[in-house]
Design brief:
about 325 residues; mainly beta; Immunoglobulin-like; 4 domains; six-stranded mixed β-sheet; about 0% helix
Length: about 325
């Protein structure tokens, strides 16, 4: 039988995780803090709380920097959860998939938490026993964690157990002071199935749960479940979404990437003029550029130079004539 502690307090999320643009704190950290032991750039999650001596952990945690009222958690690219722990508190897992998705390298995020004292008789310490033991326990669509002991509200809940390589299992449980131990739930082993990932254009980089899987178009084998897919190709907008791999069916995922550059073409009279774009000499009369404003200057010996600003929209080719 699993023995658990009685928690007097629990955490509550005051403000869900969100990205913090233009946060100067991270970029000003020394390289040993911003880069992991493999030389890869990390991201940062700021946990704002007045609770002191928090232990914030994750398998992808690189460093924790304690500030006044804040905890700066440096996390590797792709990290999707952290565990908040403190003596006498029920552990809290912050699942980033419910908000920002995951930590991206170079970006800063924040979440605000506080303490919640449960009303008498409202919260129950329970144990959920599963085989395998480290299966994910989800209650009412929220991830509790992979352990055995949790503090939840009394009442009826939808319990789901998940683990990669195993078939998920869903049960309805009723939590009360007389009903607090649930299991053992045994998950059946599942077989990997073939998935197909295609893109237009092809040769896009595939990343699944932050693991590089080569380039499209490609067939792979994955266990049924949900995964974070990312497709990247130079000069195209990346695609990120959650895919669901099922035991049956085609499991074919097809995407069309949107180009984020355009072709700027300059036509001059007379021909043979020297063309500069943002004061950089242009070779030929066409140039692939990103969306934005550009200063075009045309000159030729014996003629007055012509200068103007043109605006290029993303994915829309631009033709400009200068006389």
């Amino acid at each position: 039988m699993f023995a658990y502690s009685s928690f007097a307090l629990q955490f509550k999320i005051i403000e869900n995780s969100k990205e913090v643009p233009m946060h100067a704190g991270f970029v000003n950290l020394p390289d040993r803090d911003r880069y992991d032991n493999y030389g890869n750039l990390c991201g940062m999650l700021i946990v704002r709380s007045g609770i002191k001596d928090l232990n914030i952990d994750s398998p992808m945690k690189h460093r924790q920097i304690d500030k006044e009222g804040e905890y700066w958690i440096i996390l590797q690219d792709g990290c999707w959860y952290v565990d908040i722990k403190k003596i006498d508190y029920a552990p809290l897992m912050i699942n980033l998939r419910d908000s920002v998705g995951k930590i991206d390298a170079g970006k800063v995020y924040e979440v605000t938490i506080d303490a919640l004292t449960p009303e008498a008789g409202d919260m129950i310490n329970i144990s959920i026993i599963s085989d395998p033991e480290d299966a994910e326990k989800w209650l009412g669509g929220k991830l509790l964690g992979t352990g055995k002991g949790f503090t939840v509200k009394k009442g009826t809940h939808q319990l789901e157990l998940k683990k990669s390589g195993f078939k998920s299992q869903t049960k309805e449980i009723t939590v009360s002071k007389n009903s607090f131990t649930f299991g053992t739930y045994s998950l059946s082993v599942s077989e990997p199935v073939m998935i197909t990932i295609k893109s237009t254009p092809p040769e896009s980089d595939i990343s699944i749960d932050s693991i590089n899987e080569g380039k499209t178009n490609k067939q792979l084998f994955y266990f049924p479940g949900r995964y974070q897919l990312r497709l990247v190709k130079d000069k195209y907008d990346p695609i990120e979404e959650t895919i669901t791999v099922t035991e049956t069916g085609k499991n074919e995922f097809i995407y069309t990437l949107s180009k984020n550059t355009s072709v700027l073409t300059i036509t001059t009279k007379p021909s043979g003029c020297e063309i500069s774009v943002n004061r950089s000499k242009m070779t030929g009369t066409s140039k692939e550029v990103a969306a934005g404003s550009y200063q075009i200057e045309v000159s030729k010996v014996g003629y007055e130079s012509d200068t103007r600003t043109v605006v290029v929209e993303k994915g829309v080719n631009k033709n400009e004539s200068l006389l």
